[in-house]
């Protein structure tokens, strides 16, 4: 038996506009993981406890991976995870990357990270259609990245400490639906939506500088600006707005939705010394909170 895992991710800047060729920044969440276990079996068997409305999809993406690796299908693959699904943590990308790594490992293949990304991106397309490739890139590398669709991701060297609280809104987000709805709005009003994408591009570029220089104040300001853009794109919702207001009340330096929107997660930047206190206070209110540190 071979057991290998992949991490989750969170987008700091540039969700949605990244699909249209603009840059984005994402970071790995190494404590959230999906484990894939592969062993011999008489026929292809998928032991998947993670809910998926398409019961055939897990088998489809495993078959795609087997075909890409030219590997035999007499395996059983099982999954175990502590990662919430449909919450903006890149669960589908982690499923794909973990599966590629485990199936390759079972077949004694030593795949370079570029090949892992390539196969995983094809498999993830079964979940989200024309995905940007951002999620599979950050999950495969397990390092912060500056990403532009169609280009090699740039690994970021972040030497300063940043503390983020990631709060689940309690609303599951359907990435494919949100992306499709924004596509319709873009096709109907390319000038207005395109102008917002241009604003986001500038925010992402400044965000990279803030991360690399350790400018906490600027980073928080840019997160707020990115959220304003996301609201104008129509991908926020009242639940997200309520969580952001609460986080601001606790002293957040900046806050925004992360991922597709219309639910999912909010990420907020806090001074390191109060991050854990904020987590405890929010958990007492029944919120699911993760503290991520860079």
CATH fold naming of the largest domain: Ribosomal Protein S5, domain 2
Summed over residues and divided by their number, the pLDDT gives a mean of 92
Structural class: alpha+beta
Task: Give me the Rg, rounded.
Answer: 19 Å
Provide the number of structural domains.
Answer: 2
Biggest sheet, open or closed, and with what strands and sense? 6 strands, mixed
**Shape field:** globular
**Which CATH architecture of the largest domain would you pick?**
2-Layer Sandwich
Poorly predicted segments = none
The H/E string reads EEEHEHHHEEEHHHHEEHE
Helicity level, as a percent range?
40-55%
Keywords:
294 residues, Ribosomal Protein S5, domain 2, Alpha-Beta Plaits, six-stranded mixed β-sheet, alpha+beta
What does this structure look like?
The structure is a single chain. The chain folds into two domains: 2-155, Ribosomal Protein S5, domain 2 (2-Layer Sandwich); 163-293, Alpha-Beta Plaits, CATH 3.30.70.890. Helix content is 44%, strand content 22%. It is built from nine helices and ten strands. It has helices at 57-69, 91-106, 113-128, 134-141, 175-188, 190-213, 216-232, 238-249, 275-284, and strands at residues 2-13, 24-40, 45-47, 75-81, 145-147, 154-155, 163-168, 254-258, 265-270, 289-293. α1 packs across α2, α2 crosses α4 (134-141) and α6 runs antiparallel to α7. The radius of gyration is 19 Å and the shape is globular.
């Amino acid at each position: 038996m071979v057991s290998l895992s992949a991490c989750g991710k969170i987008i700091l800047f540039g969700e949605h506009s990244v699909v249209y060729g603009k840059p984005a920044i994402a970071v790995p969440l190494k404590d959230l993981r999906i484990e894939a276990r592969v062993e011999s079996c008489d026929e292809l068997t998928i032991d998947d406890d993670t809910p998926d409305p398409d019961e055939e999809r897990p088998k489809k993406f495993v078959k795609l991976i087997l075909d890409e690796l030219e590997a035999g299908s007499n395996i059983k693959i099982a999954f175990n995870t502590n990662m919430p699904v449909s919450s903006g943590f890149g669960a589908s990308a982690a499923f794909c990357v973990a599966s590629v790594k485990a199936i390759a490992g079972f077949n004694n293949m030593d795949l370079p990270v570029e090949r892992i990304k390539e196969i995983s991106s094809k498999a993830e397309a079964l979940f989200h259609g024309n995905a940007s490739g951002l999620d599979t890139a950050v999950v495969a590398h397990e390092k912060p990245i500056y990403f532009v669709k169609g280009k090699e991701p740039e690994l970021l060297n972040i030497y300063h400490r940043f503390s983020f609280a990631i709060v689940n809104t309690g609303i599951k987000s359907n990435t494919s639906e949100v992306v499709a709805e924004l596509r319709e709005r873009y096709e109907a009003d390319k000038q207005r939506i395109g102008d917002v994408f241009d604003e986001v591009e500038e925010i992402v570029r400044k965000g990279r500088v803030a991360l690399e220089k350790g400018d906490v104040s600027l980073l928080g300001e840019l997160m707020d600006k990115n959220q304003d853009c996301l609201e104008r794109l129509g991908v926020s919702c009242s639940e997200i707005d309520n969580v952001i207001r609460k986080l601001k009340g606790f002293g957040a330096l900046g806050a925004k939705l992360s991922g597709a929107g219309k639910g999912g997660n909010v990420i907020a930047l806090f001074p390191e010394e109060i991050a854990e206190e904020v987590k405890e206070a929010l958990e007492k209110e029944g919120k699911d909170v993760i503290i991520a540190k860079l």
